[in-house]
């Protein structure tokens, strides 16, 4: 019995440490797509976070000087170039601002926190936009970016509308999704949270769009597919319940799309939401 016990403990320790390491050091993807390749005028932007990281961004102006601005937040693991082709249609009406979260794309940082520290990245983006005289924005975010957008909306009055697509509801729940080993999910997730506190000083339970929702009364559009294989649909249901007291929260749940897929109605749905709420 002792051999079995110590084997199980060793398995849990090694597996959770490996899971922790792979979570904070996912592959660094740098897309080849740039606004120039899509025929867009743009400006390269260098941001600096409060904790000293250099972030890479693009400001894509609309032809109208009166156009409002939408901040586009990529997912995990991806970068700003990954999402631009699918969202370039928004430039017909809006300025677009994109940046690479820490560790991803052309930004600095030796690790990702999947949303826990990325709010500091968003804050640096807002400071840059304010320096351009932009004090109100809409936000579109996918996956991790969707979670960051929701958490930021609870703290930043500059945000006037948010589209959050395939977001998690709580980062600590995503720790369980990392393993998917039935009953072993719980001790593995607990250990992963422990390593995050010990090595990074981060409590991932505080990265919680569900908690943020209590303080959000602006227009919100939550998009999720019931077949999402990366972030299970239960996260969308938790968010739906969290927004029950926000009469301006909208939900678009789809049946047969995987993580990151969209259908023919997508562009119209997103554009109408921002036109009506930003």
Automatic annotation (TrEMBL):
<dbReference type="GO" id="GO:0006508">
    <property type="term" value="P:proteolysis"/>
</dbReference>
<dbReference type="InterPro" id="IPR001375">
    <property type="entry name" value="Peptidase_S9_cat"/>
</dbReference>
<dbReference type="InterPro" id="IPR052920">
    <property type="entry name" value="DNA-binding_regulatory"/>
</dbReference>
<protein>
    <recommendedName>
        <fullName>Peptidase S9 prolyl oligopeptidase catalytic domain-containing protein</fullName>
    </recommendedName>
</protein>
<dbReference type="Pfam" id="PF00326">
    <property type="entry name" value="Peptidase_S9"/>
</dbReference>
<dbReference type="GO" id="GO:0008236">
    <property type="term" value="F:serine-type peptidase activity"/>
</dbReference>
<feature type="domain" description="Peptidase S9 prolyl oligopeptidase catalytic">
    <location>
        <begin position="113"/>
        <end position="269"/>
    </location>
</feature>
<dbReference type="InterPro" id="IPR029058">
    <property type="entry name" value="AB_hydrolase_fold"/>
</dbReference>
